[in-house]
Structure prediction request, 942 residues.
Amino acid sequence: MEVLLEQLERFAEVLAVSRTRHASSWGRVAVRRSLCWARYLRHVHGRFRLRGPVRAALEGRLRRLRLRPAPLGGDAAPAAPCPESGPPLSFEGLGCGEQLLALGLLENASLPSPALHELLQRLRPEGPAEPSEEGLGNRLAELARRRAASQLLRPLLGSGPAQPDPVLRRTEAELLLLRLRQEAEAEPGAEALLLDRLWQQLPQPRWLAVVAEALLLPPAPGPRGAACAPDEDDPGSPSDLGPAPAAPLLAWLLSRPAPLAALCRLLPAPLLASLAGRHADLAEACLDLLWDWAGHLHFDLTKGAWVGSDPEGLTWERLRDCFRCFCQAPAPLSLQARIALDSCRARDGGFEAPGLSVWTDLEREERSDDFSKITYLGLNLRF
Amino acid sequence: MAQDTLDTSLNFEFWLNKAVAWGQATTLESQQDVCLHLPQLQKFLQQIYETLKHMDFHTAIQRFPLIGQLLGRLCWNPFVIGYDENQKILMWCLCCLYCSEPWNTIELEVNIWIRSLLCHLLSSSKLGLNEVGTVSQALGYTSPDYYPKLLKNMVLSLANELRVNHLNGFSIGKTIPDKQIKAMSLLCIPLLTLPDILPLLEALLTYQGDESKEILCSEFLEGVNESFLQKKIALSESAVLSLWLRHLPSLEKATLHLFENLISRHRNASPEEMECFIKDSLLPQAACHPSIFRIVDEIFWNALLETNGTSEVLTVIQVFTRCFVQAFQKNNDQLKFPLKSYFPYTSPSLIMVLLQNPKDLPRGLWCQHLNHISEILKKIVEDQSTQSCRSLFEHWFLFIHFGEWADIAAEELLMLRAESPATLLWLLAFYYNPHDQNQQRTQTMVDAAEAHGHIMKLFGRTPLSVKDLQDVTDTRHPRIQRLIRHLLLNFLLLSPDGYKIAQEFIITQTDEIASELLNLIARITYRWNRLGVETQRPAKLAKDLLQELQCYTMKSEFL
Prediction:
């Protein structure tokens, strides 16, 4: 067992190095050996894939590896994994370790020719010396085929370069939830760190769209016993993620005022309403936030409209759109929204005339909407 | 070989020109042209690889100076890459050309070019896809992680759109125009054998447009059918049914493929094995739809005519009909068509009486039932007003479908359970000689009765010799030879004395007759097994006999 764990560590290092300039020192033997390890660990993954003590031990070791600074022989390496060295190795990553290694080496411009040549020979049918080596070429070819298939089918999905691509969003959302689960297994609390980092790193509209999609993904089909094997081809499928995959994401969102505010401000109103309709906690938080913002609006007599004191803050139009969508959402949310409107209006004095209380005016808008019977088709619109 | 080299060189130029013309396959014409040439291109690439694998870069360049252009262009054509094994072969070719120790600038540049081309094939970093890297990269995932997911989501989204489009067609108005659906089917052609695509294939196959014209392109339908017949994709029953309903050539091809399997490739298949093949082909289930049944039946009819009604074809039709009836009776929830729609030119009473499964009748009543069948058929045949050649053969063809009853008639004649052997003999005579005119038929009946009597006398004779058997089958009655052989065979299986010399007798026959007899034995044992008949000892003996004879015939063919 100890030998296995050592090899696991060795391979994780190797995988990390394969993507950096340190690979320039690799020769044929290094490539051969690393592929050998990758293959061996793939078999290990196949054998211990169903949860059990061996898998737990391997995952534990991988967890500890991530916290330890990577020894890169002399160079002071940063404690956090640098982006170019690729993702930290997870147990599931062992299943496609060979492919990850091969792709890493292929994409690494600093790998010398003889080393790459060694790799390429092993992709050919005559290349592998042993029968157990076969398959890497086939798997990579399958990857190429799938990539071509995505490229072929893409134009059919109808979204232009300017519009966001719903299929892409969905895939990214699934990957996000998968990563969150992996982080949670590695170490409790790591999910929040990851989400913080992503919030800093990615452009806001992009990130928020993915978060929204992830929160709207359909839940798992039903309770599954521990004896069920996870889907080998698709580890991130909703059924494998457990009963409440988005729980950590929701928790993070509710505990971070900045992302929550950005969500309420930037997400298209109908999408926000779908989210709120699905997660009661979020609905409450959003309504609180909207109430808070509404307090910052004052009525400008010269313009005859409500304006905000903060030019970056919420506008009257946004507030109105949000409430409009909330009130037209299905049951608990619409009721919640209307009650909020009523109570806030009452608190402000219960006026009927416009321009005195922002809540009165909001409610007038809702009433006129109801009167003219505008309906949004399919409130679970997902943009 | 010099000829081969010449061929490959000429072909090389041809394919390079094609690759240049196709570009990245962005226009409809280029897409259609690529799809047309995909199988040959794959063969050609395989040939190229076979040549390249023994060469290094320099030899390869001398042999194929423009290899770089060809490989490069093909790698940028997603239709080419998406098809079957093209991507694998192209990858292998590139791996062959990579220089392990580059000595000069050219080799260095070649290496860089090969590496970038492989990266283009495999990884996501330089993509035409809209920023697909950003979030996924930030999450730490690479292509092996997300291409399967991305593709799965794309397929599901498209399949869903198709379904919704279909439902919306009547009220709100379609979101996907017909032209785009045709384009969709074209785009799927290279991807047919990719398992991820299956939901989309099924959605396309079951899609019904408003027009009566076919929306999907025919190359797509042919490709799906071909892949299905070669067992490269696992379509659901309803998808296959849709395919065959909308594309007649596919149905015909599927039926002929089944026939070929049963008659040529698996010549010695027992009826049990035939049943497996037939059920696997999904044709009986599809044939519950009368239009499909009629077409399959037509093909059987032609096969019968072409082969002059050999025993093998009769068996195939019999087993197929059995599978069809099973599927038809199981088809509870779906729309059940009236029986007349399957056999429109025949009398409904005949259909009903033939449809009766012998398993559901007590054995003692079989004779009675046979008499009933005989009566009805006789009436139809001798009725002057319906006496058209066509009608006669339609009824005979119907009888062939349920030829099990003829087999039972022969057996009952031998077991002497019939009250009036003449009726059963008539049935058997009609089975083998439907075209007899009135006078001929009378003569046939006389001859048949004589032969029957002769065979019954063999029961008592001991010791029985092969010569005795040959006396029966001599050419005294040339026109009823098959009937006589059928009766004689039953005798050989049912009488202990007959069984002893059966093998000896069959060996002395011509190959054609021997295979006819073997086929009959197989049919008889199949029936006995199915009906759970108490002739257990004869059943086992028959099976042994069959095996020995099959070994013998295979040996003699080999010699």
